[in-house]
Amino acid sequence: MKKIVSALLISSAALSGTAFAKDLCDVPEDQWQSKEALEQAVVDKGWSVKKIKVDEGCYEVYGKDENGKKVEAYFDPKTFEIVEMKD
């Protein structure tokens, strides 16, 4: 019985964490600029783009920055401000 209760507590804790998780970017989709516009904006900064996808309510860009360093960056889809960068 203890094992079942422990499993239920762990499961509910995991679910509650994901159920209340908030997206990194919180912008209504009708206010988003296009992926193509973002790609052009980062290319204009000297970046090369390998892939752009949507993650956590943001545009996530994989590519290389102006120095040729690999980047994974999250952009606000309305303003194109960088909200997070990962190494």
Description of the structure:
This protein is an alpha+beta fold and 87 residues long. It has one domain: Roll (Nuclear Transport Factor 2, Chain: A). Helix content is 32%, strand content 30%. Strand 3 and strand 4 form a beta hairpin. About 20% of the residues have low confidence.
Specify Rg, calculated over alpha carbons: 18 Å
Distance between the termini: 44 Å
Order of helices and strands: HHEEEE
Describe the biggest sheet?
Answer: 4 strands, antiparallel
Q: Would you report the number of β strands?
A: 4
Which CATH architecture would you pick?
Answer: Roll
Strand order of the largest sheet: 1-2-3-4
Supply the number of helical segments. Answer: 2
Level-1 CATH class name = Alpha Beta
Number of domains: 1
Which percent bin holds the helix content? 25-40%
Q: pLDDT average, as an integer?
A: 83
CATH topology annotation: Nuclear Transport Factor 2, Chain: A
Low-pLDDT residue intervals, each spanning 5 or more residues: 4-20
Overall, the morphology is: globular
> What class do helices, strands and sheet pairing give?
alpha+beta
Strand content: 25-35%
